[in-house]
Predict the structure of Glycosyltransferase.
Amino acid sequence: MGFIKPHAVLVPFPAQGHINPMMQLAQKLVEDGFIVTFVNTDFNHARIFQANNMAKSGLSTDEVEICHNIRLVSISDGLAPQDSRTDFAKLTNSMENCMGHSFHKLIEEINEKEQHNVTCLIVDINVACWSLDIAKQYHIPSAAICPASAATYATFYNIPNLVSAGLLPSNGVFKEQKMVDYSLPSMPPIHCTRFAWMVGSEEDQEILFHYTLRNIESVRDIESVICNTFLDLEATILNSFPEQDLVCPVGPLIPSQFFNGNISQSNTGLIATGFWAEELQCLEWLDKQSPESVIYVSFGSLVILNERQFEEFALGLEATQRPFLWVVRNDLLDGTTTVFPSGFTERIKDRGCLVSWAPQLSVLSHPSIACFVTHCGWNSTLESISMGVPMICWPYFADQFLNCSYIAEVWKIGLVLKANNNGIMDKLEIETAVERVLSDEDGVEIRKRVRKLKKSGRDAVKEGGSSSINYKSFLNATKNS
Ligand code: UDP
């Protein structure tokens, strides 16, 4: 009988910032001898397929065996094609009602039809409440991954304690505005409107709070929870978990070629997971700029700005008089089309590069990049740290406020932009922050600190480093269970 490879089924939450690190994990597993089935929603599967021109490579959307033993499959999220996937209360409700059943069927089909039975299930903590039951039923060993920071996970994990201590209302939604100091080690106090579940209307927030609670409850029973972070970055909070519920940092989950000095390459050989097509020509533009001169601006996959915010921000960037690369997604503006301030594109054409989606890791690792104006999504934060790039923060929602507090107050590797009462970022605010990070005394210290963390992150994933050791024991447990 031949050697049968272990077969892991991976299930991310259906959003860009969750799919990317899950795919990094998939590629690592495959390097370590696994076969991986990667489960997207039909909606995202079609988007990724289209954005990355997979049809041109002769692939069909039904079932995509791309390469390296990773197979992309998909199931319905239960919503209609025209429904918004950024209404998270609606999306999570629908997933919980529909995806569990389809997922069950998928696992049964794999086990009935294929030579490679499912040997383990690795799910995003944010889909645990509907995806882990089947593992119990069929005794499939399972693990969960937190694609966010350990601090975010600690907040979720401690919800029941915080409710018992009277620090959180039992439905997660505060009646009065206040700062909450939830006395977890190293955790900066947070304004009550800035918890990760505070998205949408009060009703939505309550739905998301209870969804989070159900996920955390489901994760409590399983053997391993791994997290896309590293020990030196979040040691205090990581060490605060009780022995029986330890969270193992295995990050930064970033393809190794970005750590090997092979920078600014346009073709990484990785499986593309972007919802938008990457505009690779920005790398050539970066090649022409001076070292550490360019401001990189990206607000991730979900941020939406109103027209005034967008306009003032564009003028702020212009006022810096420095070269910049700005990712302006086709849905960044809450209206219909992107309207730049009058004459803007003409005035900045010699020093500004505008793209609708960038190869972010290649950009951040490019020697021309000086700083990153970011919404503080966890992947962007970790990617910036891994490339030693200081940040200027404009958080928008979910865990981004907490990430921002860590960047500015705990690690001190960036500055926060402060909006006026109307949520507008004054152009002077942007100009001043850029100057402070790039030329002030503050900036020198900020850059020193972020470079130190970059080294710690790289050491963590090297042979013998803390994340590498944790990943290996996770792998052994997963292979042998
Ligand atoms: N990203 C990218 N190109 C862009 C902007 C973002 O490839 O132009 C990637 C980025 O590298 C990161 C992900 O999209 O891996 C965004 O995740 P993050 O957690 O930062 O933010 P979210 O989109 O979840 O708000």
Q: What stands out?
A: The first strand starts at residue 7 and ends at 11. Residues 15-17, 20, 274, 298, 300-302, 327, 357-358, 360-361, 377-380, 383 surround uridine-5'-diphosphate (CB under 6 Å). Residues 7-254+461-480 form a domain with the Rossmann fold fold (CATH 3.40.50.2000).
